[in-house]
Structure formats: C-alpha cells, structure tokens
Amino acid sequence: CIRDRLKMGPEDSESFAGIIRKRRILHGFMQTELSRLSGIPAFTTSRVERGRSFPFADFLIKISGILGMDRSQLLMCAALAAIGDHRVKNESLHNIITAFHDISGREPGIS
C-alpha cells in the first residue's frame, strides 16, 4: 500500500474502499459470506466498500486474515488513507493508529 496510489474517491477502484472490495471479490466472497466469517454485518461491509463509512480497526483486523492481508499493513494503509480524507473523523484515525501500535508491539519484525 503506497499513499501516493491511494485516491480518496469512493468510486475509484484504487481508493481504500476499492481495495477492500477488490480483495473480497478476489477471494470469491459475497458480502454475506464475509459477514458470516468475520462476524461483521454485511451492511457495514457494504458501507465501507462504497466509501460511505470509514472502517474502525476491529473491522480491519477481523477481515485481514480472511482476505489474505497482513493486519499491520492494512492498518497502516487505513491510517494513510484516513489522513488524506477530510471526511474521516479524528476518532477513527486514532482508533486505527492505536490498533497498529498494539499489533506492531506483538508482531516480530515490525518497529
């Protein structure tokens, strides 16, 4: 995930929302299947994928393994996307950065 490649328009396939959607489709999951596996309501996934809401860290952590994504990298991408998106509240950004910090302290090779 490179910040320069992240565009913030929800309709853009390279937006953070688009990345989540593309990974779900790549793994062959419908939103309802991802919901069942992650415990996250399909409505929430739909809103995130359409760029209508920005995910909190617990959403990202729950879907990362299911979608074959590294948790710390996904959280870092989310933080960078949040910084570039004026619609994201400080609370969401703080939540993601705190989770990244917590995870990076437990995973080897992350500093």
Please specify the SSE layout and strand pairing:
Layout: H1 16-26, H2 31-38, H3 42-49, H4 57-66, H5 71-83, H6 90-104
Helix pairs in contact: 2-3, 5-6
Written account of the structure:
It contains six helices and no strands. With 111 residues, the protein is mainly alpha-helical.
Instruction: Estimate percent helicity.
Output: 55-70%
Taking the alpha carbons of the first and last residues, their distance comes to 17 Å
Mean pLDDT: 81
Taking Cα atoms only, what radius of gyration do you get, to the nearest Å? Answer: 13 Å
Structural class: mainly alpha
Number of strands: 0
Largest sheet: none
Poorly predicted ranges (pLDDT <50, ≥5 residues)?
Answer: 1-13
Instruction: Give the oligomeric state of the chains in this entry, treating copies of one chain as homo and distinct chains as hetero.
Output: single chain
Q: Strand fraction band? A: under 5%
Number of helices: 6
Return the string of H and E elements: HHHHHH
Shape: globular
Brief summary of the model shown:
The chain has 111 residues and is mainly α.
Can you tag this structure with a few keywords?
globular, mainly alpha, 111 residues
